[in-house]
Write the structure tokens for this entry.
Amino acid sequence: MSASPSRRAGVCGWPIAHSRSPLIHRYWLESLGVDGAYERFAVPPGAFPAFAASIGVDRLVGANVTLPHKEAAFAACDELAAAARGAGAVNTLWREEGALCGDNTDVAGFLANLDAEAPEWRRQAGDAIVLGAGGAARAVVYALLSQGCERVAIVNRTPERAEALAARFGAAAEAVAWGELPRRLAEADLLVNATSLGMAGQRAVEIDLKPLKSAAVVADIVYVPLQTPLIAAARRRDLRAVEGLGMLLHQAAPAFARWFGTRPTVTPELRALVAADIAAGGKEIA
């Protein structure tokens, strides 16, 4: 990489110090011989509009967006890709002819991870439960409904947020009270944690998985630790468990291609590199 790369990109969030996105994109920049740089941007909530305005200035060709800015990024965009419009959240920004554009590669990343780790999930995903109602949950709900899930129950500690998200997706989605989880688990084919619960330094998801069917799939978008308490509990029940690291890796590839013009590949070497870095400590989700 040159001292003054021709293109810069990065990830913005608050906090941002432990994001693994720089490790992923810098690996691709180096391995593919691309003249570019990828940085971290610590952006407090009130400063996001100013950051969004900086896209397209000083060789900054785009940015990933993580907590807590995915919904603010959606609101800031002039043009939206179909996945971003459908999810109501943006995690990838770039500028075209002056217009700020947004996509949601979490959708493709989540689906690619499920396909890789639990390829049978599509045949049985009639009924799903999603924990959370933030930007990541929006992507997960949209992804599931786009792939034919008949019903998605949205469970959140703040019922109003779950109700608002369910209303966005119509009759196929419904808000469900936390206390209703045991009954709904018995009907579920897929359970997804789309919150930060279970992340290193935070409390675990407090759910008894006993009611789940033996063929149910349990997925977690949290990737620090690699095996979250929810994933560990699923494995103790011999359920198919899908860790969050694959979603992080797969959502990064289309963003990299957008900014740097080359489509990278998620390889075992990259996964091992990021997994080793996670094992060394830190905490962040996609």
In short: The mean pLDDT is 94.
